Every structure is written in structure tokens, then in C-alpha cells.
Amino acid sequence: MLRHPFNAPRLLAGGMLLMLITAGHASGQDVQISDARLSLLPGEQPGAGYFQLHNTGDEAAVLVGAQSDAFEEVEIHVSSEENGMAHMHALEQLEIEAGERFEFAPKGHHLMFIGRKQTLSEGDDVEVLLEFDDAQPLPVTFDVVSPASL
Ligand SMILES: [Cu+2]
Prior knowledge:
Layout lengths: L7 H14 L9 E9 L7 E9 L5 E7 L3 E12 L2 E7 L2 E3 L4 E4 L4 E8 L8 E8 L5 E8 L5
Parallel strand pairs: 1-10
Antiparallel strand pairs: 1-2, 2-7, 2-8, 3-6, 3-9, 4-5, 4-8, 9-10
The structure holds copper (II) ion.
The site of copper (II) ion has 4 residues, from strand 8.
């Protein structure tokens, strides 16, 4: 499951690092993802990924990034509103406490999928690897949906 076909070298490097720094930290298996959707806007606009993350472990899980073969880049973003204007900015990492259920949802946290590398349409699956600071990357399948469905 964790030996995902793409990006083997990076996984390998992550694995070696893991051996050096783990012991008692949350593992990828302690994180459960549900309802993963990728909302696709027309043209070259980035897509937004929403899901629920449940940390079932007894240590905090720290999400540090994500990647997908279908996009140049995936960032962790948070939306906010200032003086009635919508903004968003990238987060370097996001900590989810032990036992916490965290929701990535419209107008809040989301994954920003930038630079589409292949044609995608509603109903397609996109494979995404969620990266944690001291746990194995977690493969998640996102369902491509229309923004109107959210
Ligand atoms: Cu964003």
C-alpha cells in the first residue's frame, strides 16, 4: 500500500529518514482520510482538495505537504476573510492533535492543486500522497467533482 508506484526515490529517502527520527510518533496508518474530493475549476485555474482527516493515533500528526502526478505542485492552504475580501495563503505544515478530526472544507483549509499536467474530468480519480513530518506518506484517492457539488 505504501509502496506506491510513483516517486519511489523520494519514498525511499523518506523511509531512511524515518528510521533515524521515529520512535513513538504517529504513523501514516494512524491517520484516516475520508470524503476526499478535488474540486476542479475550468481552464488553468488550480483545483481545491477537501477531505476529513482523523488522527486515530496517540501522537500529533503533522501534515507537511502533498504531491500528485497529475499536478505540478500541491500546497496546503487556508482561506480567510479580511474586510469582506477572500484571501488564502500557504501553510508550511499543519498539526492535527491526537484523536482530532480535522476538516478540510470550502472557505477553510484545503489542498491547492496547481499546474494540471493531464486532462481531468468529473468522476476521475486522482492519486495523492499526503506527507507527514515523521510518518510514512499516505496515499489517498481524490474524487474529481464539480465546484457546484460542494
Ligand atoms: Cu488555495
